[in-house]
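Structure (tokenized):
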């Protein structure tokens, strides 16, 4: 079940790389794994390791305390490439609640919304300013306030609007997928069908 999201406040980890595609987020060979065991263990599997397959301590998510962050700052065109939903599963299973970046792959963006991961589009200059701030103040916190539709950045970096489709936003706020959200309207649906059958009785023949 999707986890409800209203406001998330956390340190943020900057992930380097323009055009970080879904195969970098989770290599395709891991998609046969049982999701019940969690895809978080495969997140950025190859790019967080060196040429010998060993954990690279310089990769942002490998640094002490980084695993506690629930917000990522990414670069342009994050999540491009194949349409694998497993890329979103890997982020969600790792505990990531929101991803901030200048732009996202279209399919990744929509998959994120359907799985309770909030993708926040933020102008490139503001992303660069945030990345610089986090370099100087790694303990700084960022707030993604979905209820208020606001991204609250640390220091002097200000507050920025979050633009997300209203239906998707309502689903995520309630922790409901599209089918579960539809069920919340069952009373109205039942009333509509009753009125429709009363005015179009021939439909029941």
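Design, position by position:
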């Amino acid at each position: 079940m999707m986890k409800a999201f209203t406001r998330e406040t956390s340190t943020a980890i900057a992930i380097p790389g323009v055009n970080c595609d879904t195969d970098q987020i989770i290599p395709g060979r891991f998609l046969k794994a049982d999701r019940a065991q969690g895809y978080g263990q495969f997140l950025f599997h190859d790019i967080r390791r060196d040429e010998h397959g060993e954990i690279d301590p310089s990769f942002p998510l490998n640094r002490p305390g980084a695993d506690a962050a629930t917000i990522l700052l990414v670069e342009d065109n994050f999540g491009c490439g194949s349409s694998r939903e497993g890329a979103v599963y890997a982020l969600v299973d790792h505990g990531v609640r929101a991803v901030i970046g200048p732009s996202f792959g279209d399919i990744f963006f929509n998959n994120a919304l359907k799985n309770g991961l909030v993708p926040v589009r933020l102008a490139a200059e503001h992303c660069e300013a945030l990345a610089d701030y986090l370099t100087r103040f790694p303990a700084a916190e960022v707030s993604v306030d979905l209820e208020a539709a606001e991204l609250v950045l640390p220091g002097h970096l200000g507050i920025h609007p979050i633009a997300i489709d209203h239906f998707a936003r309502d689903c995520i706020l309630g922790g409901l997928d599209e089918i579960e959200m539809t069920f919340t309207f069952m009373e109205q649906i039942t009333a509509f069908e009753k009125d429709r059958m009363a005015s179009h009785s021939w439909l029941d023949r």
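Reviewer-requested clarification: Residues 186-199 form the longest helix (14 residues). The radius of gyration is 20 Å.
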